[in-house]
């Protein structure tokens, strides 16, 4: 048995779902002969808990769900803040699940950079760092012979990056179009059913799928961040969310959405990218998609991406009704990739 020590940044919906999934999937992890231990968790406002012997997951989940401070579980060194935590915690893998910052990618970039420099593998569900610093952090990870993985950032953990990396050899991604933001898709679907946008957003928030700041969903920032990651990872781009042409869905009314549906079209917030003059060009905008297009049938919390390839033509990955557990699975899948690539006997 090899011990693998996990440290976690954030204890919100995604981090908690990941910890629950870890407990549920212990039998599937057993053949890897790895003993997983969560040795620390840092939050923004609820303190930091570390325990080299491993935190009690059931207790942590109870505290997480109740929104209580985690400090009481501390049984080790005390850390002043999240940066000190990543710079010093004795761990092998950092799971980064903090709030999205689509304006600069910070502080996630600094945390991930510090962890990689210390020789930790990093797995993130947060788009911030891969959207702003993918090339730099991937390069650092390569030099350190560690992994920097981010499958959970797009399509809630459905394999998109590993799908291209591991199963599409000798393939060029010519472009993509996708519905990448579940919250706006949920809101647009509910508006088509007659709900005012504010009520639809409240329902999305209750499901835990909306960003902590829902403006990031409605104004297209979350989609722009995902689009930037896809362009950088799959089309060798070097863009950032602020460089992606972006229009959100705020200007759409329930009446406009219903009227479009009467004409056989559905409003969808699309992320699109193509090559132009040897450069990938991307944008995020609401489009009226005809019902003959498969993306018109991606409704509610579902999400989908059509990859345009030079080998298989168009390949569509569609996650039906993704929610937080699916994002948690993206983290688990990345963790298993790390185990297989770095700890397999
Ligand atoms: N929810 C989804 O369906 C989904 C899907 C894909 C990706 N994601 C991404 O996953 C990440 C987490 O999402 P979530 O829904 O779990 O968010 P959440 O429920 O709002 O939780 C965010 C967590 O991050 C912590 N945090 C924020 N800044 C921090 C810092 N500087 N240091 C340490 N902890 C910090 C918060 O601490 P406090 O508890 O003190 O506030 C909180 O525990 C986000 O980046 C989101 O974009 C979410």
Give a description of the structure:
By secondary structure, this protein is of the alpha/beta class. It has 2 domains: 2-163 and 325-342, NAD(P)-binding Rossmann-like Domain (Rossmann fold), CATH 3.40.50; 169-322, 2-Layer Sandwich (Dihydrodipicolinate Reductase, domain 2). Helices cover 39% and strands 22% of the residues. The chain is built from 13 helices and 12 strands. It has helices at residues 13-24, 26-29, 57-66, 82-88, 108-117, 128-144, 161-167, 182-192, 197-207, 215-218, 221-234, 254-262, 324-342, and strands spanning 2-9, 34-42, 48-50, 93-96, 121-124, 148-149, 173-179, 245-246, 265-276, 279-290, 303-309, 314-319. Strands 3-2-1-4-5-6 form a 6-stranded mixed β-sheet, sandwiched between helices. It has a 6-stranded mixed β-sheet with strand order 8-10-9-7-11-12. Helix 5 runs parallel beside helix 6. The chain is globular. It starts with a strand and ends with a helix. Bound molecules: NADP nicotinamide-adenine-dinucleotide phosphate. NADP nicotinamide-adenine-dinucleotide phosphate (NAP) is lined by residues 9-15, 42-46, 82, 97-100, 107, 125-127, 152-153, 156, 208-209, 211-212, 324, 327. The site of NADP nicotinamide-adenine-dinucleotide phosphate has 30 residues, from helix 1 and helix 13.
For the record, what CATH class of the largest domain applies? Answer: Alpha Beta
H/E element sequence: EHHEEHHEHEHEHEHHHHEHEEEEH
**Main beta sheet:** 6 strands, mixed
CATH architecture of the largest domain: 3-Layer(aba) Sandwich
- CA distance, first residue to last residue: 10 Å
Indicate the low-confidence ranges by residue numbers.
none
| Total DSSP E strands | 12
Query: Which ligands accompany this protein?
Result: NADP nicotinamide-adenine-dinucleotide phosphate
Mean pLDDT: 96
Roughly what fraction of the amino acids lie in strands?
15-25%
**CATH homologous superfamily designation of the largest domain:** NAD(P)-binding Rossmann-like Domain
Query: What Rg is obtained from the alpha carbons, in whole angstroms?
Result: 20 Å
């Amino acid at each position: 048995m090899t011990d693998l020590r996990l440290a976690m940044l954030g204890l919100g919906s995604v981090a908690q779902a990941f910890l629950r999934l870890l407990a549920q999937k212990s039998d599937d992890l057993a053949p890897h002969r790895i003993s997983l231990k969560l040795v620390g968790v840092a939050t923004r406002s609820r303190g930091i808990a570390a325990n080299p012997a491993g935190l009690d997951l059931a207790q942590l989940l109870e505290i997480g769900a109740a929104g209580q401070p985690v400090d009481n579980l501390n049984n080790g060194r005390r850390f002043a803040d999240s940066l000190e935590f990543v710079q010093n915690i004795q761990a092998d893998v950092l799971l980064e699940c903090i709030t999205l910052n689509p304006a600069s990618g910070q502080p996630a970039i600094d945390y991930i950079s510090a962890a990689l420099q210390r020789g930790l593998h990093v797995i993130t569900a947060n788009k911030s760092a891969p959207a702003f610093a993918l090339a730099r952090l991937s390069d650092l990870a390569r030099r350190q012979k560690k992994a920097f993985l981010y499958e959970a950032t797009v399509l809630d953990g459905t394999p998109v990056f590993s799908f291209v990396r591991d199963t599409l050899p000798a393939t060029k991604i010519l472009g993509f179009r996708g519905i990448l933001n579940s919250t706006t898709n949920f809101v647009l679907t509910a508006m088509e059913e007659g709900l005012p946008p504010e009520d639809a957003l409240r329902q999305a928030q209750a499901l835990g799928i909306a960003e902590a700041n829902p403006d990031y969903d409605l104004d297209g920032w979350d989609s722009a961040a995902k689009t930037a990651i896809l362009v950088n990872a799959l089309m060798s781009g070097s863009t950032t969310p602020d460089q992606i042409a972006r229009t959100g869905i705020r200007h759409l009314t329930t009446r406009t959405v219903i009227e479009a549906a009467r004409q056989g079209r559905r409003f969808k917030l699309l992320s699109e990218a193509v090559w132009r003059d040897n450069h990938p060009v991307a944008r995020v905008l609401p489009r009226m998609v005809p019902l003959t297009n498969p993306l018109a049938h991606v409704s509610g919390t579902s999400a989908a991406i059509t990859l345009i390839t030079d080998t298989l033509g168009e390949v569509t990955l569609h996650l039906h009704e993704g929610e937080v557990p699916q994002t948690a699975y993206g983290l688990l899948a990345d963790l298993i990739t790390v185990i297989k690539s770095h700890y397999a006997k």
